[in-house]
Amino acid sequence: MKKTASALALPWQAALISVALAASGGLAGAQPAQTSPPTAQRGLPSLGDAGEMTPLLERKLGDVIIGDFYRDPDYLDDPVLSEYVNGIMRALLAGARAGGDLPPELDEGYAWQVLIGRDSAINAFSLPGGYFGLYTGMIGIVNSRDELAAVMAHELGHVTQRHVARMIGQQSRQAPLLLGALLAGIIAATRNPAAGAAMLVGGQAAGIQQQLNYSRDMEREADRIGYDIDTQAGFAPNGFAAMFEAMQKAQRLTDSDDWPYLRSHPLTVQRIADMRQRQGVANGSPASDPQTLLIAARARVLSRPGVDTLRQWAYAPQSPGFAQQPALQRATALYTAAMAQAQLHDLARAQRNAADLAPLVADDPRAARQARLLQADLALQAGQPQRVLALLPEAPQGAADDPPGKANPPGPADRPRSQAGRPELLLRAQALLATGDAAQAASSLQSWLADHPRDAGVWQQLAAVWAAQGQTLRNLRAEGQARLAQMDLQGAIDRFRAAQDYSRQHPGGSADLIEASIIDTRMRETQAALRQQKKDEEQWK
Ligand SMILES: [Zn+2]
After folding, report:
1. Ligand 1 center to residue 92 CA distance, Å?
2. Chain centroid to CA 478: how far?
């Protein structure tokens, strides 16, 4: 119960909650529909159907909500997990595009970003505007890309079918509401999650819980569309049923209330039967793939399982009979142990386990890469930057990556990639900085940003490089860009203003003049964006 209450208080879930709140009387009660219709007063149409919630409006709403997600302490900016889940999402988008399931208006106008929440609950959800949330708990139970792809395809199905907009439309027909009241409710609840939770506790919790969920028809539609997208993208067709079966099995084993996804998807048994039928002979589970087993282990450790569990994982490789276990099982245990030991600050032991892991996955390029990234990460934490550079000699290529928010995905059936990507970029930059080669660190980060200008994590790393070099102006600009990429417009403006002040007090050479003029431009753009956002919100009130 406690878990449920705290989960409801998180902005991660607040968007859908507050849609329900607004529709079920929280806001409507304050403005009874019988009295002077606010519609006429405000000059806004009352909401009839999804059509009035345009994709542009949905994206704007998503941008506002996502700004709060980025600032949530449970937002997890892990380059390895982020690359993995966003790679799957891009493969799904390519499948949707190929199968005609992705209207160009949404394709071009939506953000298509997956954000990860550090939470052991098994949950995944979609938000307005093409943003998705995925908890580490969900990543932690998968054995193959196909399984995670199934859940993400289902969520993508909700988005391509515009279920949020349709849900708002349907509920507002039952109790006519202003579009503005709904959006204000969503924004208020995401800005002040505690208030949203208090309103829930206040009364109609059961009714709200019910309205939180998409309708059964919407769930069936998301299954159907999601299944098409999933298979068009080349993922194994039995991933869908396998994933729901895995969730049910895990739920029986754990006996906890960490299962919001199953709560919001109660048709599981019927759905599994339907899916199995649709798939005909494709019974069983997709083969587990070594990379995913390591990724899932990483997600489990990063879910903050508590010190006792970390200790248990840390010493698992020393247990009797370990050497007789299958190689893949040992590899997963060693990765888990190394991650857990790093969390427990026993880096020497962590590095030994990571070294033992490497030969076990050497014949699988993706898993071998994950093992190498783990070794490099541990070396960096242990203060061995030269070792990081020896492990990751390759300079990342902008085109060969899976960064958040970019097209051009590797399909699930593509050749295993050994090329360096974003995790390598960030680890190498930190190692270069530590060895005193800040110039090379800056140049690799800058060339990445030329291709991925909205990559907040890389901007933040660049800011650290500039700070270490005493480049205050550039540091402030990079920090401002990082805020901007996370939809923190006011935060960005504050940084750009600090940069302008600094520039006035410290007139420098021509390089600084160019930098100052870029900062002026960014400042103007960001101020205009913030004015527009305030204007939109004013209209939504
Ligand atoms: Zn669903």
Report:
1. 16
2. 22
